[in-house]
Amino acid sequence: MAAGSKIPVNSVVGAVAAVIVAARAKDVRHIPRAILDEDGTIGSSVKMWSTAIAIFGYEKLIAAILRKLKLTSIPSTLAAMLSLFAILRTTQKTVSKEAADKLSALLAPGVNFLGKWMGCFLAPPLVSLDASIAALPKYGQGVWANMVALLFAGWSATHMAAGAVASSLAPKKVLNGPATAAPAQASTAVATKAGAKDVVPLDEAIRRAWVIIGATSYLGVACSSMLPAVLHRPIGMMCQASTTIGGLAVCKLLPDGVQKVLHPLVICAVTSNLASRFVGPAAPYFNNGVGVGDLLFKWLNAAVTGLGVRMYNTTNLWLDNPDDFKCVLATCTVSGLMSLGGTALLGSASPLSVPAPLSLPLLHRSVMSALGIEGSKAVGPECDPKLAVASILITGCIGASLGKSLLELCPKVFDTSSPLVRGLSMGCSAHSIGTAGLISMGDTEAAAISGASMCLAGTVHTILLSLPGVVPTIRKMAALPPLA
Description:
Elements: H1 9-23, H2 42-68, H3 76-94, H4 97-116, H5 118-127, H6 129-134, H7 141-169, H8 202-222, H9 232-251, H10 256-261, H11 264-279, H12 292-297, H13 300-305, H14 307-313, H15 315-318, H16 322-349, H17 356-359, H18 369-379, H19 385-408, H20 419-440, H21 444-466, H22 470-477
């Protein structure tokens, strides 16, 4: 080889993929388990997929009803989530708790599946984030520094406001601190059957399956010049799908401390971006609704809808006791006002003076990504949903890493012994990532409250944005013209 010559990327990727395929060939046996439920049986898989598809269809039905009623300003994800919760609660009150619990248990396989893989459904907006950043004006370092300061200041203010309100209203009763994390019950699925020689938990089997699928598809893309053209697109799509799904599964092996700073979703999005570049135009990640990114993103609304079932399952912690509910409702309302109004004010009227294309996405930093995307559309074209999702992800990581420590700095103000305070402050400011952080610490009661409060805080956020005059005021503060 001549000095200075370069080895083609295809050759390097193909060689690495070939080595992985050869070394992990035995993992082919795990591929069926990539689509099976916890016990590895066809019957449970049918239940999982059928209930997931039913939830997907339910959200689409709600969206169609909203369009028919000309209520398109209401996000269908929010309406589907709350209506599903309302159905379960109504069943509990009018029929029996047993009937409502049975309905909840019936939907559980699909809800658990959608929740487990929500990261894959969130990844697509982040995959094309680099294009959104490139489309921004060329801001100087000072502008970006002000944006980061606004992000931190906004999160801190929302987190502390939620903690202060919850501390003042939480019922004074004997409460336990964070529970010790129970040992994870790894599913041994088919491998635990009598005579099994190799016990492999389901999560590990899924990782191994997607690694071998990914290596095979990367090898196929690297050798695409030798394959029929008709195979280029399906192999490219499998390459991208295996990167997004397998990347998220593999990243979950990272230590909890690392995941708080470098969330698996970030790694998943970056690797998926690189995979889309490697595959090239043969199979665009976004392709008029039929690309891998399009197909995965379509499931996000269903995953959020499933949270309505999770809200029902935790009502004893935040709804059944009137004092608890008063605390939850007041905290979610105050945090919604603080997050939306405070960010709009700091971004435009403070010395930070962050330009609208950077400040407007931060309005949605403390709500779920699906609601942040809908909220961005409501604010206007200057508020890029992809940047909103990025701010939501960063805020969640900050909250999961620093949220507990921030409240513990002022024990006279924040009652961190209360699960309501811990859960509400995290759910209202750091949404699902903060909730996952509580779970990783074994604080299961606070995590359940956090999961419900992030849904309620998102509801408040959406209602505030839909009130007459709110969006025009935000746009006026940002020196933007009214929406047509």
